[in-house]
Amino acid sequence: MFVSFQSLPRKILLLAVYAAALTANGLAAWADIRLPAVGATNITDVLGNVQGGLQRGTRILNKTDITASYTSDDTSGWSAFADVQFTDATNFSGVLVGDAQTVSNIDAPAGLRLANAWIAKDFGGRGGFKTGIIDLNTEFDVQSTGALFLNSAFGIGPDFSQSGRSGPSIFPNTGLGLVGWWLPGGHWQLKAGLFEGSPGDPSHPGRTSFSTTGSDGALVVMEARNHLTPDFVIGAGTWRYTEAFDAIDPSRGRLRGNSGFYAIADGLLWAAPEGEKTGLSGWLRAGFADRRINPVGLAMSGGLTYTGPFGRLADQAGFAFSRVGFGMPARQAALINGGAIGEAETTLEATYGFNVNSHLSVQPDVQYVISPSGDPALRDALVLGSRFIATW
User: How many CB atoms lie within 10 A of CB 390?
Assistant: First the structure.
């Protein structure tokens, strides 16, 4: 049985959340009482596939988030966070590019969903826990430097994001989870998480739903990070589903052991004399998944960003790459079904972000996708566009 968040009309619920946000801020100012901090962000991507891929064309993608956060004003260490999210159904990659890694990280099915709703407890900086509806990628497999880029591969790795029936508990299908962390030393952090094995409703992707049957099992994630300096970290993580999955090769039936692991190095490489976190940052990531069950067996990514180019301290410029390797079982299955998959897909991205004012930023972007989805029938795709981020 699924419990769905879609019982109210999307537009009515979205307007209600906006009204509640304005009312809460007004009451807090008038009564001088402590209320959750409320904010809103709207991201719009205007993207055009000008060469190769499935077909040429331009699309507008949009994602709106309304958030409320609360932190106790005493030493109890309690905090809470909620995020209501709305997206359209542009499907830019699926209709125009045909790539496996997804050109825009806001590309998702249309829907109004509760993306996050959790409470957390911190035990004096030595450890803590978080429980509720949790986006796994806010806790695990995070590349801070990669957050600048538009392509989905520079968030959670494609080897991990492909897993499960409809992906792990990440945008746009988040689910229930429990995360705990421990800091055994000044620069070490250990984390473990337990998540729904099949978040959302696989028959309605992007809809907030919770399975109450328990038949989908669970996803277990563990990660260790070592902060070599305050601004540079290395880490490694592993994940595993408790339930069995259909093998790519039908003759092998259902298999247990759907798992993978990843390693990350991420942080500031050179600090510019201007200070204010300016300078050159970079990251490298490699991830592996069970090729018997998952099409992508290997994913590698990395990139460089520079904060403060041309003396503009808030600007960021960056270049990144991501390459996914398709496993032999997936390639053989494609041949059996009359198609073909090559060894890999590679995406290159260059971007530049700048602030227009305190509420609006603009980010021109160029992506070049080599061998989209490994399909030899598709020409390399060139995508041009820009991202617009408005915050309140």
Answer: 14
- Give the torsion sign (CA, 82, 197, 301, 97): negative
Please provide the size of the chain in residues: 392
Q: Are 194 and 220 in contact (CB under 8 A)?
A: yes
Q: What is the pTM of this model?
A: 0.88
**Beta-carbon-side half-sphere exposure of residue 365 (alpha carbons within 13 Å):** 25
Burial-class residue 208 by CB neighbours within 10 Å (0-12, 13-18, 19+). buried
CB-count exposure of residue 7 (10 Å: 0-12, 13-18, 19+):
exposed
Q: Take residue 50 and report the two structure tokens written for it.
A: 């000008």
Determine the Cα–Cα distance for residues 183 and 191; give it in Å rounded to an integer.
9
CA angle 130, 132, 138 (to 5 degrees): 60
Q: Are 161 and 167 in contact (CB under 8 A)?
A: yes
Q: Are 249 and 332 in contact (CB under 8 A)?
A: yes
Q: CB-based contacts of 205: which residues, under 8 Å, 6+ apart?
A: 109, 166, 172, 173
Per residue in 293-349, pLDDT (tens digit) is: 999 999 999 999 999 999 899 999 999 999 999 999 999 999 888 888 889 999 999
Closest CA to 379 of 338, 350, 342, 351: 342
The backbone region for 309, taken as left when phi is positive above 0, alpha when psi lies in -120 to 50, beta otherwise, is: beta
* Three-state SS at 123: coil
